[in-house]
Write a structure and sequence with these properties.
138 residues, STM4215-like, alpha+beta, 2 helices
């Protein structure tokens, strides 16, 4: 799976599992890499990015070699100051549940972690960090 395909697969899972779920109230409030839209104002919103990590050969010999890519799905959640933390914490929990120890479309998502960043530039921020791996044969 190439980078573009991998990124599209991960973003599609986030979109269908999180953004498009009405209860999450994130429709049109998620920004993906190279999104030209401005950040939403006075509402809870998310920024999604994918960070590639190590690439290793995990099998040797034979005609087919397997390569493993490690990476991180990085979700930054923002909410206006003064709104409290209930909504943003519930959203972080929903993301953790959606991606925890799941295999989907050839990508294995590992155990997510939540980091409370706190106040930043007029907003309150919480990050959800989701390690993933995928294997390719060559």
């Amino acid at each position: 799976m190439g980078r573009e395909s991998r990124d599209n697969t991960i973003q599609a899972k986030f979109k269908t599992g999180i953004e498009d779920v009405e209860a999450n109230k994130l429709t049109d409030k998620v920004r993906y890499p190279n999104d030209k839209r401005k950040k939403p104002q006075n509402t809870t919103w998310a920024k999604v990015s994918i960070r590639e990590g190590e690439n290793n050969q995990v099998t040797m010999g034979g005609q087919t070699k397997r390569f493993r890519t490690l990476g991180i799905l990085f979700v930054q959640l923002f909410t206006p100051l003064g709104e409290g933390t209930k909504t943003i914490n519930a959203l972080a929990d929903t993301i953790v549940t959606e991606f925890r120890a799941v295999r989907a479309s050839g990508i294995v998502y590992r155990t997510p972690r939540v980091e409370k960043i706190g106040r930043r530039s007029g907003e309150y921020q919480v990050n959800v960090i989701i390690p993933f791996l995928l294997d390719d044969n060559a």
